[in-house]
Design brief:
single chain; 842 residues; alpha+beta; 7-stranded mixed β-sheet; 4-stranded parallel β-sheet; 27 helices; globular; binds ligand ANZ; aminoacyl-trna synthetase; EC 6.1.1.4; aa-tRNA-synth_Ia; aminoacyl-tRNA deacylase activity
């Protein structure tokens, strides 16, 4: 007999799909409802790996499912092909980054095809193509016009290994670079930014629209990243300075408890205040402190368990409500680019301030009595056991009183609760012109310039007059110059600055000598809008075609790793809102639903070459076949969970696929059979699968669907071998259903089964069959009820009825009661579900 041979199936069907393009998205005249299913596009670093294999297998289940449900599905793929790894690889190997990038793309492209992703191969895009990045430049110019792209000098995260700036999002919690692993330092540079902070409220508030369709974890991460705080700005006059210093506080109610002020050492304010200090020693100590501070990361600076350091600047601020003189310190726990880079320190009620006050012997004044309840019932405690406020003195205990209570030592605020005190103090400050309500965000503007070659050139020309001149739109794209003669080795300024033919250009306004901006854009710009480009990838006249956008966008289902929970998703949400404001799209959220797949691990930890636990996808595919690997990914568990490759069995998957495939060899009926004549028990199981699988797929319970398929395969095999046989119409019906179900997970096997079952077109485009409701209700069987061996009645009962229940129902029948009369029942014979016999004697 024929054997299941996955290699033969792959060789047979790949060229057929290549030729027939079953997944080309028909654009004109297709009346089906549309679904846009998008997998996060890959970075072309080497060949596909196990992580890709998982992500794209799961995304493909969703795409194939909606196609099967009668939707016109757009499922595109492309490459996120600019970026540092290509450039670093190029430097190491002495290649052009283009060569490394496009070689890898070619390899991944053919691997993807073999992996049978149901992509529309006519829509491929690469972000490093000038035809693509031209539109990054267009987007930049649109944002520049609106003041959403701007340049400023500021302290930036600097990766000393890659010699480039990093976005905050690229600095790991331990202060190292996500890219190179180096400890990130601060450096002052003039850089391009996108004004994402203007959108902070909308980025936060619109998360509500995504509840239920995005993982709750991702929503929470976005919310924390944006980090909105509500409070007040308070102005403090500073002795010897004309302008007051403003601080942001979330606790203006504690203003009477402020005992000193702290400024961020790396803020312009601190530098100015130190320069104006009367003591030369202070100025020197400040300078060396600043140098020290610049070596530490923001995360380190905010760590609460770190000993507090700081310098007293010998300057004084005046508390606007009581005229007290507050010493001004510079300390690194205050950050330069949050709020105003300065805080009013209230050590009694803020732990960081308290740690600092205790380290430097500064006064602590309690202004909130946390023992006085604010609302609700007073706890019934023995008055003698009540602690005294003095016992809780933070100056002694070292524990700040952060809780609620009533205000004390606070003049007009005394006796008020926190929220009433906040309201009252803001009123007082506003009346005096020394304060106002304020909001702050953890989110900073998006730093988009990079001093590297392999990215989108920023379309700005710097005139000799120091002004910025946007490159006129009809001169886009500003193409990257060739690498010949350029040294790509990182050195802190862009290599493009040395491309003299490229960088020296006439001023677009008056033709005078001018220079191009040499920086390139963060590649997160490229990926912030690529989902729109897929809708008209070859349009040379616009970034995207609004008619196609109307048809397809936003993305119905986005699939990708949780590693992108913040960066990419936040930027894409931001750019979508910008495009909405500019009138280019009519929606404000790019991705209506999001599925995060887990990671593929090995023996409990992430795979890596250095750990020696790398499983090569190509080896797995050679050994088990594409379908078995894909099926294993779907069967391993809920998609959001990690898969430990040591715990799963691709060999088991391959065996199951062979068992399923062999069924077609034993189907001896032809496609014109009448289903209704088939074996009822097998039909019931088939139709239960048809009824349940769609809901399970939509709930992403892919593993459960695979388990049900395994049961159905067993049932069909049993029907063939020891039931009604391979000619029964129900066997054909079951096996066709198995092929339809398998087509979501194991496209080669399913396609081959389908064709052997007598169908010409691809199983992927056949559709789904509706379950017959009459086969979904439970069948009843007839139980015969006898008295002394004589049939007295019949009962319709479930085939699974229990003996006792059957006996009870039988005994309750009037016909049986009548037959028994006043005789005594001595024995009851019960053969559930078929028979009950009451044996009596007078
Ligand atoms: C006085 C105060 C009293 C504060 C109190 C808190 C508790 P979030 O919630 O993170 O927004 N702060 C303000 N600017 C800062 C900066 N640049 N670097 C470090 N800390 C800064 O925190 C806001 C609080 O963090 C502000 O409220 C301020 O301390 C501090 F019992 O002001 B608070």
């Amino acid at each position: 007999a024929e054997r299941y041979d996955f290699r033969a199936l792959q060789d047979k069907w790949l060229p057929v799909w290549e030729e027939q393009k079953p997944f080309r998205t028909d654009i004109e005249g297709d009346k089906r409802p549309r679904k846009y299913v998008l997998d996060m596009f890959p970075y072309p670093s080497g060949d596909l790996h196990m992580g890709h294999a998982e992500a794209y297998a799961l995304g493909d289940v969703v795409a194939r499912y909606w196609r099967q449900q009668g939707f016109n599905v757009l499922h595109p793929i492309g490459w996120d092909s600019f970026g540092l790894p290509a450039e670093n690889a190029a430097i190491k190997r002495g290649l052009d980054p283009r060569q490394w990038t496009y070689d890898n793309i070619e390899q991944q492209h053919s691997s993807f095809k073999k992996y049978a992703g149901s992509f529309d191969w006519d829509r491929v895009l690469h972000t490093s193509d000038p035809e693509y990045y031209k539109w990054n430049q267009w987007l930049f110019l649109k944002m520049y016009e609106k003041g959403l792209a701007y340049r400023k000098a500021s302290w930036v995260n600097w990766d000393p290994v890659d010699q480039t700036v990093l976005a905050n999002e690229q600095v790991l919690p331990d202060g190292t670079s996500e890219r190179s692993g180096a400890v990130v330092v601060k450096k002052k540079l003039t850089q391009w930014y996108f004004r994402i902070t203007d959108y902070a409220d909308r980025l936060l508030d619109d998360l509500k629209q995504l509840e239920g369709t995005w993982p709750a974890k991702v929503i929470a991460m976005q919310r924390n990243w944006i980090g909105r705080s509500i409070g007040a700005d308070v102005d403090f006059a500073v002795e010897g300075r004309d302008e007051p210093v403003t601080v942001f506080t979330t606790r203006p109610d504690t203003l009477y408890g402020a005992t000193f002020m702290v400024v961020a050492p790396d803020s312009d304010l601190a530098i100015e205040l130190a320069a104006g200090s009367p003591s030369e020693e202070v100025r020197d100590r400040f300078a060396s402190y600043l140098a020290e501070v610049q070596k530490s990361s923001e995360t380190e600076r905010q760590a609460t368990d770190r000993p507090k350091t700081g310098i007293f600047l010998e300057r004084y601020a005046i508390n606007p409500v009581n005229g007290e003189r507050l010493p001004i310190w510079a300390a690194d726990y205050v950050l330069a680019d949050y709020g105003h880079g300065a805080v009013m320190a209230v050590p009694a009620h803020d732990q960081r301030d308290l740690d600092f006050a205790r380290a430097f012997g500064l006064p602590v004044r309690v202004v909130v009595d946390t023992l006085q309840p604010v609302t609700g019932v007073i706890p019934v405690l023995d008055p003698d056991d009540l602690p005294e406020l003095e016992d809780l003195n933070p100056g002694t205990t070292g524990i700040a009183l952060a809780g609620e209570g009533r205000l004390i030592n606070s003049g007009p605020l005394d006796g008020l609760s926190k929220s009433n005190a906040i309201r009252k103090i803001i009123e007082i400050l506003e009346a005096a012109g020394t304060g106002r309500p304020a909001k702050n965000y953890r989110l900073r503007d998006w730093l988009i310039s990079r001093q590297r070659y392999w990215g989108t050139p920023i379309p700005i020309i710097h005139g000799a007059d120091g002004q910025e001149y946007p490159v006129p739109e009809d001169q886009l794209p500003v193409e990257l110059p060739p690498t010949e003669g350029l040294n790509l080795t990182p050195k802190g300024s862009s290599p493009l600055g040395a491309a003299s033919d490229w960088v020296n250009v006439p001023n677009p306004v008056d033709g005078s000598p001018a220079r191009r901006d040499p920086d390139t854009m963060d590649t997160f710009v490229d990926s912030s809008w690529y989902f729109l480009r897929f809708l008209s990838p070859n349009d040379s006249t616009q970034a995207f075609d609004p008619r196609e956008v109307d048809k397809w966008a936003p993305v119905d289902q986005y699939v990708g790793g949780v590693t992108h929970a913040i960066l990419h998703l936040l930027y894409a949400r931001f750019i979508t809102k910008v495009l909405f404001d500019l009138g280019y799209v009519s929606f404000t959220e790019p991705f209506s639903a999001l599925l995060n797949q887990g990671m593929v691990l090995m023996d409990g930890s992430a795979m890596s070459k250095s750990k020696g636990n790398l499983v090569r996808l190509s080896d797995q595919l050679d050994e088990h076949g594409v379908d078995a690997v894909r099926l294993t990914m779907a069967f391993a568990g809920p998609p959001e969970d990690d898969i430990d490759w040591a715990d799963v069995s691709p060999a088991g998957s391959a065996k199951f696929l062979a068992r399923a495939w062999r069924l077609v060899l034993d189907v001896t009926s032809d496609p014109s059979v009448n289903w209704r004549e088939g074996d009822r028990a097998l039909r019931r199981q088939t139709h239960r699968f048809l009824a349940e699988a769609p809901g399970l797929i939509e709930a992403f319970k892919f593993n459960v669907v695979v388990a049900r398929l395994m049961e159905l395969v067993n049932a069909a095999r049993k029907a063939i071998d020891s039931g009604p046989g391979g000619g029964d119409p129900a066997v054909r019906e079951a096996v066709e259903t198995i092929a339809l179900g398998l087509s979501l997970f194991a496209p080669y096997t399913a396609e081959d089964m389908w064709s052997r079952l007598g169908y010409d077109a691809s199983v992927a485009n056949y559709g789904w069959r509706k379950a017959d409701p009459s086969l979904l209700t439970q069948d009843l069987v007839t139980a015969v009820v006898q008295v002394d061996g004589k049939v007295r009645d019949r009962l319709e009962v479930s085939p699974k009825v229990e003996g006792a229940a059957l006996e009870e129902s039988a005994r309750a029948l009037p016909s049986v009661q009548r037959a028994i009369g006043d005789r005594t029942v001595v024995t009851v014979v019960v053969r559930a579900p078929r028979l009950v016999n009451f044996v009596t004697k007078p």
